[in-house]
Amino acid sequence: MSFLKKSLANDKLPLKNRLVFPPMATSESNEDGKVSKGLIDYYDEL
Length: 46
Prior knowledge:
- By secondary structure, the chain is an alpha+beta fold.
- The protein has a domain at 22-46.
- It is 17% helix and 9% strand.
- Strands 1-2 form a two-stranded antiparallel ribbon.
- It starts with 7 loop residues before the first strand and ends with a helix.
- InterPro entries: Aldolase_TIM.
């Protein structure tokens, strides 16, 4: 599974590796569904 650590790129989105972290229910988004500071902080800690 070493291929997961290799970079992958297309015209729009270069990826450093092939690992993707799915969105999780954090209850940190704004009421309108947009990204909040709390959500950014949550993912920044990972």
